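Hey team,

Sharing the Extracellular solute-binding protein run so nobody has to redo it. Sequence (442 residues) first:
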Amino acid sequence: MNKKTSMLFGASMVSMLLISACTGGGKEPAKEANQPKDVPPPAAADAPVKVSTDPVTLKFAINFSWLSEEERQKYIVDPVKKKYPNISFEWINLTETSLDKVIATGVIPDIVQSASPIINTYTDLGLADNMEPLIKSHKFDTSKISKAGLDAVKTTSGNDYLIGLPWTIQYSATYINKDIFDKFGVGYPKDGMTWEEMKDLSIKLTRKEGETQYRGLEPDVPSRLVSVLSAGYVDTKSNKASLDTEPWKRVFTLMKSIYDIPGNENYRWVPSAFDQFSKDRTLAMYPGLNYLPNFKSINGINWDIVQYPQFKEKPNISMQVDEWVLHVTKQSKYKDQAFQVISSILSDEVQTEMSRNARFPIVTTKSVQDELAKNLPYVQGKNLKAFFLSTPAAPVPPSKYAAYGSTVSQEAFKKVMKEGVDINSALREADEKLNKNMLESK
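Structure output:
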């Protein structure tokens, strides 16, 4: 993830107690005198479950490097305090420790934030539970949430039910330096272009002027392109490496053809690719994730965005779903209150505020999406609709071997470019390395 780094809660179903009131002699039914104050009356069949308003402190495990203190306050603490003043938080910073180490101390969070590509770091710990009964009892409408986002929770967790709810998702687009296009008299790219069309355009922009080498296009790391084809490092059904396959060969072939453009071979991968675009200003086109907040400190560049390039056989499909997911743990004693927190984060009010600050919303409500980056004056007038023109590709189930798979796949591509190793041989060797690593790790 560019910096990056997606709530299934075992929900106790609230028993509906049907009280038969016996009437006799015209007398009204007797009231229950000893009902505990903190136990709410039964809810009507069509009403959300009644939740205790007693003060409660929820343990919330989240990676602070993913979400700043300002954002936690703005999107979580303040909205929850306004609607549910009885709820407060005890934060568990997963930047300083890992979730498994937290659990080992005997501390069980009530809410955990994970991410779809690494959701296994949550599901492997025995915390996950079917959240759908909880969703139902709270009458929460999931239809406003991205279908791709909901499906990704099921796919990546290996379940046919939801163990969590996504709350923000990555979208991708192509960043263009219009100054370079103007310099060489080349027309700007348009929404809907294929990789091949963008590559052809980049040939006109890859030039050397004096001591400055301009590059037309940087395709980014192989794993991001292959995710468009819904392929990964490991076939989780056979538990075998899946690098020596057609999707990887397709991506390596495309990337090599782009880097083989004379003058475009000095490839840059994250984060230096964005630096080459924004600081060196020698890169004309960079397809990537959400960099909108980064432009706050970037001045003097005439930039814009267009739709992420697509494979011919995958029209309007971008990188696979990369989303943050909120879970209520199976062991939580405050599942209903935890869900109230999640429903607050998924409210149109909070999602709109996120959208205005360029934190992509998970809801597909047009009025929310239309507010994208409205609070960022430096992006006004940009082609922001380009982000929503593509649908994220279907994700693949995550694997604990993904980190090593990423390493060997990038090493394989470098051998292709630096050592002249043919693509088939490089991928076959990478596949063997990954399989060996998997066997040794068992």
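The domain at 56-170+322-369 is CATH 3.40.190.10 (D-Maltodextrin-Binding Protein; domain 2).

Ping me if you want the raw files.
A.
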